[in-house]
Write a structure and sequence with these properties.
Strand content of chain A: under 5%
Order of helices and strands of chain B: HEEEHEEHEHHHHEHEHEEHHH
Helix content of chain A: 55-70%
CATH superfamily of the largest domain in chain B: P-loop containing nucleotide triphosphate hydrolases
Subcellular location (chain A): Cell membrane
Organism (chain A): Isoptericola halotolerans
Largest sheet of chain B: 6 strands, mixed
Shape of chain A: globular
Oligomer: heterodimer
Number of helices of chain A: 15
Distance between the termini of chain B: 43 Å
Number of strands of chain A: 2
Membrane topology (chain A): Multi-pass membrane protein
Protein name (chain A): Amino acid/amide ABC transporter membrane protein 2 (HAAT family)
Strand content of chain B: 15-25%
Radius of gyration of chain B: 22 Å
Structural class of chain A: mainly alpha
Pfam families (chain A): BPD_transp_2
Number of helices of chain B: 12
Distance between the termini of chain A: 50 Å
Number of domains of chain B: 2
């Protein structure tokens, strides 16, 4: 029983974890791409990694926290422009191919020794090089604070301060995305998602709208990378394809083209993911299950189950938790 | 019979026009020259000269594969020609994008209806409104800047929807409409842009006969309001019923032009639709007669 409570507390902790916020942020950006505009971005992790690098490198070289945020956003914008300008004139699938390979290219450049003095190569940028300016901004008093069973230090890596900033950023961006998607601008995006040519025939510059969506969603993805880097280090190999597919799972779980889908999806995903892994580990240690599932296999099995979840979601509930069933009725062509 | 009166009024303007391919019109709105489009070795469109008269309904007909839709796509910027140029209201539109053509006032619909399924009928209409300030990203998040325009557009959209008897469906998803209703919606949506010329690609295809009557009425009403209509259609009854002028295409070329009453009797049109020897019974022994064969060959050479 005590063991079960511990697992439950750990899973609950994931609801507010900075990583959850980071993925929620990335999913909000992907939602703008896929949910509203119908763009298949298969490289959101590339945007996140670039954002994290922009943030981390600016701080290590002595820039301020705010400058670092701006550099991160600029990195996302630039990446979106480079990917979008040649491909958005082509059919949708090409963007998917280009984004997935571009994200990989960014990761391989990051882990190579080419710019090692900036990126730290394969072992990445350690948090201690860039965290200080961020933690100095904290106005929380020294010490620890407990919210129910969740207790963290006020200021530090895995702290309340990180959580406040992470979720504060998510809230800001969420309001911004809500405002722009409910506007006539957002309506044009949805029109493009349904049929580009129809929107073009009504005199709208489809290419420009798609590029705007890609840029904004990419910048939001870069911010997600910043949040991801706040409590941890910037390691290129932890921000690869797996990360992209986690973001997709989160978006489809919560519901594409909904406002709160990405946030809800991220919370549920990470709580369930933690519950599953700690649960399996506890079972493997304390019961006969250990003969079949050893504790060393738990991570791999967890990853596989995420893939299975993504498949089941797409097949049986493509509208996700918050999606509109009525909309789905005409989804099948 | 006011409809018939206006029909004759529109036809009156065209009375002086010669019944030949590429005939000059009194007030041409669209003028196209030497437009060709090749797909590999096949020439889909090869139009020397075409003028579309302002304020009348012009039908573009021809057998399957005649290049009607391809010509439509070229004129509206949805395809690029190999050669040729065309102008609209005296301004050159060749090489312009589909969006730019639509902005200039030349708005089209599609043969395969493009209703935006997961948008409501009203949203479909509102989307078409030109120069909506809320469609600029920089202003989109400040609703007070575009609320007024949005309200005006909504009123206009409801008015047009009412005319097409779609006003009760305004809140439904466009994907839930029937095929015929989608055709109506697409036409209504095009009207939201206040076009100078509306180009309809097979507006009657797949629409039930009861709806065809009202669709034809709508098209005529547009003309009577001063809009120019160019439409592609296979339904000869509809063409004869509403068009003021008919342009016939075959194998990429314009083979005949004229008012609907007489153009159908044109030998080139009959040949295009039925083949040159449609009244020769090939099972007939007459074919073995050298005299008949010689006549057929002579005819063939003349063409």
């Amino acid at each position: 029983m005590e063991e079960f409570l511990r697992i439950l507390t750990q899973s609950m902790g994931e609801l507010l974890a900075p990583t959850t916020a980071a993925y929620a942020m990335a999913a909000i950006g992907l939602n703008l791409h896929f949910g509203y505009t119908g763009l298949l971005n298969m490289g959101q992790a590339g945007f996140m990694l670039l954002g994290a690098y922009g943030f981390g490198i600016t701080l290590t070289t002595g820039g301020s926290f705010w400058l670092a945020l701006l550099v991160a956003i600029a990195a996302g914008v630039l990446f979106a422009l480079i990917l979008g300008m040649p491909t958005l004139q082509l059919r949708g699938d090409y963007l998917a191919i280009v984004t997935i390979s571009a994200a990989e290219i960014v990761r391989w450049f990051g882990r190579s020794t080419l710019w090692q003095e900036w990126t730290g190569g394969a072992s990445g940028l350690q948090g201690r090089y860039y965290k200080e300016p961020f933690q100095e901004l904290s106005f929380l008093p020294e010490g620890r604070f407990a919210l129910g069973p969740l207790e963290y230090i006020n200021t530090g890596s895995d702290s309340w301060w990180t959580r406040i900033v992470a979720w504060g950023l998510v809230a800001l961006v969420l309001v911004f995305v809500w405002l722009i998607t409910r506007s006539p601008w957002g309506r044009v995006l949805k029109g493009i998602r349904e049929d580009e040519d129809a929107v073009r025939a009504l005199g709208k510059n489809v290419y420009s709208y798609k590029l705007q969506a890609l840029v904004i969603g990419g910048a939001i993805g870069a911010l997600g990378g910043v949040i991801f880097a706040l409590p941890a280090a910037i390691v290129p190999d932890s921000m690869g394809r797996t990360m992209t597919f986690f973001v997709w799972t989160i978006l489809l779980l919560g519901g594409a083209a909904t406002v709160f889908g990405p946030v809800l999806g991220s919370m549920i995903f990470f709580a369930a993911y933690m519950f599953m892994r700690t649960g399996m580990r506890a079972l493997a240690e304390n019961t006969g299950v250990g003969d079949v599932i050893t504790t060393t296999n738990v991570e791999q099995i967890g990853g596989m189950l995420v893939g299975v979840t993504l498949m089941l979601l797409v097949i049986f509930r493509p509208q996700g938790i918050l999606g509109n069933k009525k909309e789905l009725a005409f989804n099948v062509r | 019979m006011s409809v018939d009166d206006t029909t004759t009024a529109a036809a009156e303007v065209l009375r002086s026009v010669e019944h030949v391919p590429g005939a000059a019109k009194p007030n041409p709105l669209v003028v196209a020259d030497h437009v060709t489009r090749k797909f590999g070795g096949m020439t889909a469109v090869d139009v020397d000269h075409l003028e579309v008269q302002e304020g009348v309904i012009t039908a573009l007909i021809g057998p399957n594969g005649a290049g009607k839709t391809t010509l439509f796509n070229l004129l509206t910027g949805f395809d690029r020609p190999n050669t040729g140029e065309w102008s609209f209201q005296g301004r050159s539109l060749s090489g312009k994008s589909g969006a730019a053509v639509a902005k200039a006032g030349m708005v089209r619909t599609f043969q395969l209806t493009k209703a935006l399924s997961r948008l409501t009928v009203l949203q479909n209409m509102l989307l078409a409104s030109p120069s909506n300030p809320g469609e600029k990203l920089a202003l989109s998040w400040l609703p007070f800047l575009w609320k007024k325009h949005e309200a005006e557009t909504t009123a206009k959209a409801m008015e047009i929807l009412a005319r097409f008897k779609l006003d009760t469906k305004a809140a439904d998803y466009a994907g839930s409409l029937s095929g015929g209703q989608r055709k109506l919606l697409e036409m209504a949506r095009a009207l939201m842009t206040d076009p100078t010329i509306i180009m309809l690609d097979e507006p009657m295809a797949g629409v039930n006969p009861a709806l065809v009557q009202s669709l034809l009425g709508h098209v005529q009403a547009l003309r009577d309001e001063g809009m120019t209509v160019l439409f592609v259609e296979h339904d000869m009854h509809a063409v004869r019923h509403i068009s003021d002028w008919v342009v016939v295409m075959a194998e990429g070329r314009i083979v005949a032009e004229g008012p609907p009453g007489s153009v159908m009797k044109d030998q080139a049109v009959v040949d295009a639709y039925l083949g040159a020897h449609h009244d020769t019974d090939l099972g007939d022994d007459a074919l073995l007669d050298p005299e008949v064969l010689a006549r057929l060959e002579a005819e063939e050479e003349k063409r």
